[in-house]
Design brief:
Oligomer: single chain
Distance between the termini: 68 Å
Number of helices: 6
Number of strands: 2
Structural class: mainly alpha
Length: 153
């Protein structure tokens, strides 16, 4: 388990630091896609469920309570102002990241899966695997019978 380097003084600060970290990773992915010849036509959107962090990303007013995260503050604002990406607020109930980070009820999992377009393909796969296994058994059985007939002749 990785230890935290800093202790956040508020949830807004914690969310903002996570947002800055997410932007770094997004910039890396954008550079990789561009290098592979797949530049994005539309800037990506990062979703944040903390209103304070979302407003800080595009509000150029200096907040005295946020002096200790100034580097992250300027980095995120610069990227948003350049149009490299967008930061959008998402209500906590609609946060798709919860699907990967929190224990959820079955109904909640299904709701978030539908929201991101994730479908359960396991039943489809199992059907094909069983069908293919039966076909393989028939083929092997016929092949063994043919070999036995060839040996008897």
């Amino acid at each position: 388990m990785k230890k935290q380097r800093v202790v956040a003084r508020s949830t807004t600060e914690a969310e903002y630091r996570a947002l800055a970290n997410g932007i770094l990773k997004t910039l890396w992915l954008l550079a990789l896609l561009h290098e592979l010849g797949f530049p994005l036509k539309v800037p990506p959107s990062l979703l944040c469920d903390n209103l304070g962090a979302t407003h800080l990303s595009f509000n150029s007013v200096h907040h005295s309570r946020m002096k200790h995260i100034q580097i992250d503050l300027h980095f995120v604002r610069d990227q948003v102002q350049k149009g490299t990406l967008h930061v959008r607020h998402v209500h906590t109930q609609d946060q798709p990241a919860d699907l990967l980070t929190k224990p959820l009820s079955r109904a909640r999992i299904e709701f978030l899966q539908a929201k991101i377009g994730l479908v359960d393909g396991s039943s489809i796969l199992w059907g094909h695997i069983k069908k293919d296994a039966r076909n393989l058994q028939v083929i092997c059985s016929n092949s063994l019978k043919q070999s036995a007939n060839d040996l008897q002749e």
